[in-house]
Amino acid sequence: MRSRGSWKIRIFIGLAIVAFAYFNKCSNTETNPYTGREQHITMDAQQEIAIGLQSAPEMAQQHGGLYPDERLQAFVDAVGQKLVNNSIARETPYQYDFHLLADDRTINAFALPGGQCFITYALFKQLNEAQLAGVMGHEIGHVIGRHSAERIADSQFWQQTMMGATVGAGDLGSVVGAIGQNTLLKNGRGDELESDELGVLLMIQSGYDPYELIEVMKILKAAAGPNRVPEFQSTHPDPENRIERIKEAIVKYQGR
Q: One GO molecular function term (predicted)?
C-alpha cells in the first residue's frame, strides 16, 4: 500500500514532465512562411533533408525498387523539377528528387522530409502529364508544409505527455495516449487538404491545368472501390470532399 506522500511525489513528477512537454512545444512553435500556419517543429530544414535522403533507399526497396525504364524516370523527374522551378517551391531550402517506383500493384505516392518524392508505377501508368504534375505537386506540398517534421514533433510531445500522465496518474496515461492518437489522425487529414491546395497553386504557377487534380481524385476513388474505409476511420479525406476543396483552391488562386 502506497502512502499519500508517495502519490504526491508521483503527481508532482508527472505534472513537471507534462509542463516541460508543453513548454518545449510552445518554445518550438514557428510560422510556416509558405502556408502562414503556426507549427510545432523541432528540427531544421537540413535535418529534414538528411532524414529523407537516409530513408529514401529503404522506402524504394519496399516498393520493389525504382522502375527500370530510365526514360520514364527522367520524365517523372522533369515534371517534378518543372513544378519546383516555376513555383514557390524554388524558394524553399529543400532538395527535391522525384522517383518512379517499380510497384505495379499499389496505387500510391508519398514524400519524405526534405524533398524526396515517390510515385508507384501502378498510379503513374493511369495519369497524363498534367495529372502527374498534380500528384507531384501534392507531394511537394507535403514537403513545403513540413508535415513529416510536424508529425515527428507531435509524436515527441505526446510521448513526453504520456510519460508524465503515466507517472502522475497511472491508467490516465492510456487516455492521454488516445487523445494524442486522435489529434495526429485529425492533423493527418488536414495535411492532405493543405497539400491539395498547395498542389493546385504549384500547378497554376507551372502552367498546368489544376482541374486535372480533380481527375486524379476520381482515379483514386475508382481504385478504392465500393469498400473504401469511411473517412472518419482514415487519415485521408474522402475523394469527394477533396474535390470540393480543390475547386475552392482553384477559385482562390485562379479566380474561376
A: metallopeptidase activity
- Sorted by sequence, the CB contacts under 8 Å of residue 171 that are 6+ apart come out as none
Distances (CA, A) of 82 to 9, 97, 202: 59, 12, 10
Is 133:198 a contact under the CB 8 Å cutoff?
no
According to DSSP, residue 87 is labeled S
Domain boundaries, the chain: 9-254
Apex CA 226: angle with CA 220 and CA 232, to 5°?
75
Q: Is the pTM of this model over 0.90?
A: no
Kind and range of the H or E element at 173? helix 172-205
pLDDT in 10s for each residue of the chain, 256 residues? 455 555 455 444 444 444 444 445 555 688 999 999 998 888 889 988 998 899 899 999 999 999 999 999 999 999 999 999 999 999 999 999 999 999 999 999 999 989 999 999 999 999 999 999 999 999 999 999 999 888 877 665 445 555 544 544 444 334 334 434 343 334 478 889 999 999 999 999 999 999 999 999 999 888 877 665 544 445 567 777 899 999 999 999 987 5
- Report the distance separating Cα 185 and Cα 164, nearest Å: 22
Position of cell 489522425?
A: 185
